[in-house]
Amino acid sequence: MKQKILLVMLLATALTAKSADYYWVGGTGNWTDVATRWATTSGGNTFHSVIPTSADNVFFDANSFTAASQTVTVNIPTISCNNMSWVGVTNNPTFIQNDVFNLYGSITYVSGMTINGGTYLYFLSNSPGNTITCAGKRIGNVMTFNGTGGWTLQDAITFGGVEVNNGSFVTNNQTLNGENFNVRSGNVTTVNIGSSTFNLSQN
Known about the structure:
By secondary structure, the chain is mainly beta. The chain has helices at residues 2-17, 34-37, and strands at residues 21-24, 29-30, 38-39, 57-59, 71-73, 78-81, 84-85, 94-96, 100-103, 107-108, 114-116, 120-123, 130-133, 142-145, 150-153, 157-158, 161-164, 167-170, 175-178, 180-183, 189-192, 197-200.
């Protein structure tokens, strides 16, 4: 029994140790430019050896971009991270999205950035207390809530479609602009719309 308990503790420690913070540095680059763009500290010159995983937090901040209109390009079909934050960025960077973005925590965009391209954004957290801050940006073609956790809007949102398949989604009295908004019955799903306004062009 003691051996089993020890094994479980070691496994839990190993899984926790895999979580890391990733800081973008050096301006324009591709998501997979690990050795030159994903630093272990803000503005640092020590780099990670692999791209961010679902356990890792991703930061774009004041030390990420050195000139106007530099670009982060997602150059692989699927990316994942825990939390993503663009708080503090300067020089109006551009984030070029791609096919699938798996998010396991919160996401924070800012007004001083540009988002190009489309993505299928999957919210997969199984924990409560996650937030979504859009800063006036359209953040995805389709946003799908599949985790059992909870998410709360912090401001108005523009999207192609929303599918709430699981978990809790609180619109927080914000305005939602998009094409489709669907809630799947049969799962443990809570949608609290408060006094939100929905501007939907289709369903």
